[in-house]
């Protein structure tokens, strides 16, 4: 049968009616495939789960579940399914209810084969159009994913954070004609006011990038860093000329575009490691702007001049500090805060402005953990509030207390993101399992692949959320279905096992006994 055939299910409690509909119209030649015939609504729903028909022809008058009730259930399972009601009833109420449910059309008994042909082919055209629309959407998605600018931006975002191996970086930079970055580079980090609404911020970002591209720059790379700052790298430029370019750019932003911005400028750095080093230097330069003044250019040299007040060159373990922060290890973070404050105290610097700069130093580093969510500390806390609260700090005790409170906000944000991610994974996994519960291939590996998750991670979060393993969840629901079938049908054990996804009826019996405490035979005997 052609793979593109439209799958059809026939539902009628009278076998003769099904035979007439099946044989009266040449379904196969017209692009259809009869995937099953059902004599009851319950049987039809099983076909829906396994065969996923696109077109259902159902009688309206059937025992236990009539055609209208069945139609409601079908459209809950598969909203895109097309339904034709076959009925001898001509009452308006049935038609009104059917239209309300979403039934496609009616066929009145005795069925006219010409009417079936006309209606089936009309629906076939409709289904093909729907498939084309879905295909068009998928192609559009693929086009967006393949968009060169998006791919390049993602690459540079990871490159400046030193999250790409050197060999891969070299290949990509050659592909983008930016290999000079690995020779030497200077980084400009353009920061806008982040206390404005997201729409205005996005508009200003576009204006700045357009303004930069209009300049007669040579050998440069420009991109937005996770919807935060705009990063501009220059290669093959003397440091003094970049300082001049930054001054001219800032003037145009302020006076032409009417955009308030602060520009952090790195030193000139060499080699592959120099790319991420220049980025870090530009961020540190920005952190000094609270004391040296915002809405201006700040160089890394200016940042160092302030930092040189510190005679104690020791630092805390920044890598482990950031790890503890991202994983909400509160006690460990508090230990690092205490260690940081003690280092500052040992420096014997009495200038309160130095203390405030040290606060901004640790908060700037902490804020980098938010970048992967498209968030910054200024957005999370509020830029004006952040600077105002830092300016009010006058003692080391106040510093420690403020750092503890602010870093707790960051840890809470990480926790909320992880919780949402876990919940989303479990919800998607549960939905896939429920939809494919009777598929013999259903397994942890299959579920993980279908929801794009890691098997180990999925297994762990599923059990934590449901208090039962994923495999136990599948078996529990299958056994519950087998109990329903034992109570409502006369199917043999091997038939029930096959229906609920067991290839081996003996294994089904073992699982049944484990789940219920009795064998299948004992269960049947107690039922009788």
TrEMBL record:
GO terms for biological process, alphabetical: phosphorelay signal transduction system
A GO-annotated cellular component: cytoplasm
Domain HTH araC/xylS-type, residue spans: 427-526
Compartment(s) where it occurs, according to its Swiss-Prot or TrEMBL record: Cytoplasm
Coiled coil segments of this chain: 113-147
Pfam families xref list: HTH_18 (PF12833), Response_reg (PF00072)
Organism domain of life: Bacteria
Response regulatory domain: residues covered: 7-124
Location of 4-aspartylphosphate modifications: 59
Keywords, alphabetical: Coiled coil, Cytoplasm, DNA-binding, Phosphoprotein, Transcription, Transcription regulation, Two-component regulatory system
An MF annotation (GO) of this entry: sequence-specific DNA binding
Function: May play the central regulatory role in sporulation. It may be an element of the effector pathway responsible for the activation of sporulation genes in response to nutritional stress. Spo0A may act in concert with spo0H (a sigma factor) to control the expression of some genes that are critical to the sporulation process.
Name the UniProt record assigns to this protein: Stage 0 sporulation protein A homolog
Protein source organism: Lachnotalea glycerini
Highest classification ranks of the organism: Bacteria, Bacillati, Bacillota, Clostridia, Lachnospirales
